[in-house]
Amino acid sequence: MAISKGLETLKFNDALVGTVNKPIPTKDLVLRLQQLQNELSSLDQDKVDLKSLDKIKDSLINKKLVKHSNSGVQAYCACCLADVLRFYAPDAPYNASQLSDLFGLFYSQFKQLNNQDGPYYHQQTYLLTRLAETRSVVLITDLPNSEALVEQIFDIFYNLASSGTFNSRLEPLACEILSEVIAESSTIPTKTLKLILNKFLANTMVLKKGSTSIPGFKFTLEICNSNADRMSRLLTQLFSETIYEATRGKENEDYDEDKSDINKLLEQLKKLHTLAIELWKYVPEMLSSVMGLIDNELDAEEEKIRITATETIGKMLAIPNSRLNFASAHNDTYMNWLKKPLDKSPHVRSFWVKSAIQVISKKPSIASELSGGLVKTLVDSDERTRLTTVRELSNINPSVFISKVANKTIMNTLGQLVREKHSEIRSSCLQLLGNIYDSNFDLLYKGDPTLDQLVGWIPDDVLKLVYINDKTVNAQVDYTLFELILPFEEDHYKRVTRLLTVVDHLSEKGRSSFYAIVKRQQQLSKAVNQLLTLAEMKQTEEVSSKFEKLINWLVASFPETVDCRAALRQLVKLNNKRYFKLIRVCADMKSDYKTVSSSTKELFNKVSELKNIKIEDEQSVSPHDMLFTVKLLVYRSSVIFYNQNNIGHILKATKDSSNQNNKIAQDILENISTVVPEVLSANISTLVQALLHGEDIGVKDMKAIYQFGKKFPDLLNPGDDEEYIESLKKIAMNGSPSEAKYAVRLLGQVPRSVTREVVVSEIMDEIWPLDLAKANLNTSLATISELFLTDYNVLEDKTKELSSVLASQILLMNQTVGKEDEEDANGWIADNELQNNKDCHSKLLAIQIFVNWLIAVEEAENAAKVAEPVFKLLKSIIGNGGEIVSVKSETYPTPKQYQSRLRLEAGTKLLKLSRYPKYNFLIEQEMVNRLILLIQDENENVRAQFMAKLKKSLTLGLISDRFYPLVFFIAHEPNASLREDTKTWVRSMFKRKLKTNKNELLFEKSFVRMLNILSHHQEFLELLESSKQDSNYIPVLNFALTYISLALDLISNANNISLLYYLASRMKQYRDRQTPELSPNMYLVSDLTQFTIKSLCKHKSWSLATWPGKLTLPSDLYQSIGDSEQLHELSVKSFIPESETKALTDLVRDRIKHLSGSSPQAAAVAVERKRQLEEEEKPKSKKPLIKAEPQRRSSIQRATVNYKEDEDEEYVQ
């Protein structure tokens, strides 16, 4: 090789292009080109004398070589041309036409790179390497046909990648070449751009199918990473054009063809958004400009565009390990996306929820930023959005939900949604909360107050839903309770511990619901057994009739959303002995837990398959309906919670004072002894033996023995067992008051015998005469109280002296003196605190003794005479607020906490005595009226406990219907929970009575009784007197209206409103029997009630027709007026001053609007107006009032009553 001026010159001098006279054989040509290629490849690019290349550069581009038919010639020629371009770079020694031919040759060689076994594969890889090193490929971007050449090169390499035989080691070289083309091209063909970007879309599809890669994806990834800015501009242009077409098409959407085009454009837009998501995953820098367009889409007019943008951003946020932090890189877009829970479209809001949950599932770290939006969608005005939110929250891992999502607001909102009217929302919410509780139970109540606060309330709120008294709700509660809160658990210790823990953390209301669910089992188990027995009998007309009645009774409590009646009929018609046996086993009190568990599992699995429940040639219910019905039937009738296998562990907990569940175990045992004492049969002997051996078994255990013996006297009959009786005697004399109570009761279950009589006498000899200084005085009083019921004969000759001691030395005298300036109105002594307040306990026991005395002599001739001073005592205690110690006494006053307990005790004992016909007759209306003082007591405990006792007594039908009107006097109750519970109870009882007897008028008659009682209310009388002096009747009318409107809100409907109006108007045909001089007050209430009913009918568009029947008003309250002239005079006279008509109209209208659920502001105005009127200065001189019961005016604080809350709820006892 010659050296000239320091440059290397080409040595090769052979001809490459033959002529006619001197043709070059192909074989020789290949050898010459090979020789030339070897020499050119060895030359240094910067040290070549270009003049020495003039001959060969022109020869190589000759079409005889470039388009030669021999592949070897083409391969070596291409390699030589690549080196020529290398030497002349960055310019090319050829014109545009020649370069087009040159790259055509190159492309033909590239196409063969997929054949690694080809004879010229080495030359083709050399060509690829040289072009990548010298970047000579960029020359195509300046050619006239550059667009076609760009398309071709991309098609070639992407096809090579798709061939599956392209050497992966060459991929980086191909990527470099393609990246250079993108970088240097002034325009990129749309086809090429889509080819590049579509690999991202194809990659999405491949990943969905479970594959790991897609041909050409590496090319795309490298191109985009190397040219992020350039590709970003191209992508932005593509987005802009599509969005413009989509929004422009929206303006012309009236035409069908345009609508079709719009849909196509929207589909194209969705693909672009999918592309953007993939780009964010792999090349987030490319979206720098596009994100502004997506941000604009969030606010686009077209709903579908907003949905697409919302989903896209959500999916981007959900991508883990992205190179960029979305919230930081695109903060404006992120903040705009966070506002989508407030979008005008519920569909957009729902899609935001789905996106947000995906983000939380993939990136829990930013969950707290999204929780605010989730709270908004949980309370969204659109039920679909609320449902979507609850369902999507269920998809979050419970541990992630609690640690990252849950906060007080979200959990409170979910707690409200379980009361949602929309069944699917309620059901989904219960499922969600149940899963959360189940997943976190092992961590609860172990020192993490935050977790306890977030999750611990769930069982209580679920169980309180029972009070709504809705069939569908009750079914949902059952499923949640049996499957998530207290699911089947084979481990005895874990199961019982969970049962005790759950019940221990229930409120009084929640615990009552739980006990009601357990109590239901006994009744339903009998019904289920009866159903199966009837199914196995020969089907006579009588059997079929009984069967239908029983089916109807069972499904009456099942939800109507599922065809439970058809499912039960089909189950019975299947006559599958195995199914029947499994159901019987579950409902059998004697079945052990493991048997019940395995039986339910087998039964549920079988009935969930169509093949197992289908009857030939008959239409079948769906497996869903069958499984739902069978599950509900089995859950409600099976002995699961109080299974006999649980009893031993519960008893163990009751005996271990160090066990944290000791107290609740005692409570549950007490409930078991009351509800299902038969399950105690295997364990009761253990308790009896403990009692025999003098062990301290506790009050709850003694009660369990007593309840068991009460129901199964033959199974618990120690007879003359002296050791047993002796143990009871010791407890009756020396135990605690509660223990003494049950010791005497257990003695009462022992058959009468000489031994028993002797023991009872010994007990009396020990405690009589009473020694008031004895430390265990209250034990003696408790024993005496129970002996009145079991062995009255030993006390009969002592009653005179006993009553004197109780009255003068216990009730009318204080061992503990209170303070006259004591102001704690809500101070309270709970039952478990009485042992530390012995004086108070003595007084309560004294009242109990008097009441038990009356019960003992109820059938005696002198019962009324004996009862007279007792009733006087009870009435005095209530009327004087619990204070009956004389102000002149040295022991005055009685502590206020004692007074509260005493007046509650007097009220509840009055209710108890009213259960007995003879004593009920002695209770005058004046005494019933006085009980309002307890309903409106200043102490919340008194109000709550008395109302609970009243409702329970009325629900069970233990007391007279004349006590029903008292519940309406809850109207001013400041405790919203107590007020709403009572309202719910009234609605429930009202519906229940109508369901039992459609002609039942109990509440309508109670309404007219309530109106009479209202006219005697002391506060009403005082306000009325003030109104007369001030000539301003609004305060008294407003006061009365509170009760009238509450009652109408609870019991009025389109069917009975005419009757209620009739009864109110009939009041003016009677005079007040108790206090005739108060009749005008009664007429004022009558007029106000009629006025209110008319306004209510007008507001609700009810027809107020004349009541067709004739009813007389209660004769104990109303005395008929026989004077026709007086009747006429009363009928035309209005007792509401005409001057008050306008103000009254406004007042009633506001109250009616409030009742019907319109703006609460109107009611607030009315309440404020009432306050202002009542605060006005009143004249100092007043006329003496006519004293009417009740005389002790309650100091209860008035509260704004919201008549709207929970208006559709009911209460179940």
UniProtKB/TrEMBL annotation:
A Pfam family per the record = PDS5
Q: Which SUPFAM superfamilies match?
A: ARM repeat
Q: Know the name of this protein?
A: Sister chromatid cohesion protein PDS5
Keyword presence, Cell cycle: yes
Could you tell me which residues belong to the region Disordered?
1159-1213
Q: Name one GO cellular component term.
A: chromatin
Q: Which GO terms describe its biological process?
A: cell division; DNA repair; mitotic sister chromatid cohesion
Instruction: Give compartment(s).
Output: Nucleus
Recorded source organism is: Ogataea philodendri
Q: Which UniProt keywords apply?
A: Cell cycle, Cell division, Coiled coil, Mitosis, Nucleus
Q: Where is the composition biased (Basic and acidic residues)?
A: 1167-1179
Coiled coil stretches, renumbered: 26-53
Where is this chain primarily localised?
nucleus
Domain of life the protein comes from: Eukaryota
